[in-house]
Amino acid sequence: MTYHPVSSELESAACPVCEAGDVSLVYDLSPYRVVRCLACGMSYLSPRLNEAAMLRFYEDDRYFENGDLGYTSYRQQEMSLRYSFRRFLGQLKRRKLTGGSLLEVGCGYGFLLDEAKPYFDCRVGIDFSGAVHSAKDRADRVYQGNLDTIPDGELFDCIILVSVIEHVHRPVEYLRKLRQRLRPGGNLIAATPDVDSIFRRLLGRRWPAFQVVPEHVAFYNGATLSALMGKAGFTPVIRVPYVRAYPANLVVEEFNVWPGIMSRLGRRNVAFPGYMVALCGLTTGTAHS
Q1: pTM recorded for the entire structure
Q2: Which domains does the chain have, with CATH numbers?
Q3: Going by C-beta distance under 8 Å and a sequence separation of 6 or more, which residues neighbour residue 252?
């Protein structure tokens, strides 16, 4: 669903990674535009809905269930989300990136937090939406609001953001703020749709991540996500495989993609390897400089 804003809610944006302003047009999604930074190759939305206007939708308790923006029904994706999260957490364990305390940013109903129980001693979630209260039984603690809602001094060994960073207006500042919430030696893991994936190349402007406008304000690939994390102080940055699954009927209903094939599969999970890019940024030395 596309929200049509009043002019005062729109703003032009510089590149969220390198802050350059010279761009080429990728797609006109009027009143929004997907542009590509000529300096670093980052793809992002400009003009875009300003952050204050966008927060109204994120704070709406209906964001995850048939709100004016957001998900038609996040709960209907539970099986496919849990499948994706289980595989992802297994990849993290194999790379020795689990253990200790976890903060999930944008936790929604807490499906990832629930799946993370075997991998972390303490699991904490935060989200703007009131949907976070449904995660209480799936986590040790949950918070509703921005990062300042988390009590001062509460630090974590791992922070995970799945399908979150593409929503963030000032991502360098945001990741630096998250870095201050990590213990020395901790890690931050971000997963987001890959703008260089074969699916985006095949689907063009029909790529599902472009359909989630104006919520998605940035479109990353491995290089631009790595540059962002490096600029925020995470080094080294390593890639982690992430396989995203969707219910087949959702692929048709939400995005009208491959209806001839997907409609025959009903609600079965369909895995899309390579649809997402996931990177882990490590902290070295003192994390709170």
Answers
A1: 0.90
A2: 63-282 (3.40.50.150)
A3: 258, 259, 262, 263
